């Protein structure tokens, strides 16, 4: 009888031990699940970075891509993070010189076969339309960093004397950026940078016109101005802060 009573007591102790363990795990599991469900979930973004020639766009995008990958990618497993992230980071640029229209534009920019302003404008626009579906698809699960977009198309053609309303028509319907940055730097600064002057539009007086028009058309679309005289690291940090704030909304 004593043995039976002892076994029963041990059974009761074991039962309550496992019951307490179960309740502990249950409570903490739902606590963690609630924390994760309350965290803002990131959605893809289409981010455009504009600027005149040799303003540093390509370098900034390369550095920004690296810091975003380090900050965001593969962090969703850590419940201490402020954000859940399953997004990739990718980049595109315009013009894309690998396509049919891009090859025409490459010859135009390298001064091999120069097009008149209206023709070149429409070919630049067609080059962007070739990527319309790709941008929409990429944005579903990526932060897409775009080097130039239709704002440059408008500014460069208007600077050649074409009506701004005509210039805007060709790109109506293209995906709009979620964030638009303008690297704010003037032509008298970039003219001394390596590579300036090698292509069709790269001369100081013309870039001065482009700068004024580009600033106007981007600000009309709520562009974030970033001081182009800052160090590359500071520019990237400012852009990253804007992007992180957008992701948390």
TrEMBL record:
SUPFAM superfamilies: P-loop containing nucleoside triphosphate hydrolases. InterPro entries: P-loop_NTPase, Thymidylate_kin-like_dom, Thymidylate_kinase. Coiled coil: none annotated. Its EC number is 2.7.4.9. GO terms for biological process: dTDP biosynthetic process; dTTP biosynthetic process; dUDP biosynthetic process. Belongs to the thymidylate kinase family. This is dTMP kinase. It comes from Spraguea lophii (strain 42_110).
């Amino acid at each position: 009888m004593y043995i039976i009573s002892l076994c029963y007591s041990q059974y009761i102790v074991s039962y309550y031990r496992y019951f307490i363990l179960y309740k502990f795990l249950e409570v903490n599991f739902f606590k963690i699940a609630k924390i994760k469900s309350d965290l803002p979930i990131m959605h893809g973004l289409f981010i455009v970075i504009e600027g005149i020639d040799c303003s540093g766009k390509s370098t900034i995008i390369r550095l920004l891509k690296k810091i975003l990958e380090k900050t965001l990618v593969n962090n969703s497993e850590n419940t201490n993070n402020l954000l859940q992230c399953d997004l990739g980071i990718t980049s595109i640029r315009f013009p894309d010189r690998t396509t049919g229209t891009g090859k025409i534009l490459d010859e135009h920019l390298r001064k091999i076969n120069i097009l008149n302003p209206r023709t070149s404008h429409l070919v630049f626009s067609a080059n962007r339309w070739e990527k319309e579906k790709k941008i929409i698809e990429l944005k579903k699960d990526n932060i897409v960093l775009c080097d130039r977009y239709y704002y440059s198309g408008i500014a460069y053609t208007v600077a050649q004397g074409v009506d701004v309303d005509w210039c805007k028509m060709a790109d109506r319907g293209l995906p709009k950026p979620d964030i638009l940055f303008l690297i704010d730097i003037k032509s008298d600064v970039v003219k001394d940078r390596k590579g300036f002057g090698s292509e069709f539009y790269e001369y100081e007086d013309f870039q001065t016109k482009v700068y004024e028009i580009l600033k106007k058309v981007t600000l009309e679309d709520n562009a974030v101005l970033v001081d182009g005289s800052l160090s590359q690291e500071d520019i990237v940090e400012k852009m990253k802060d804007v992007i992180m704030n957008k992701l948390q909304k």
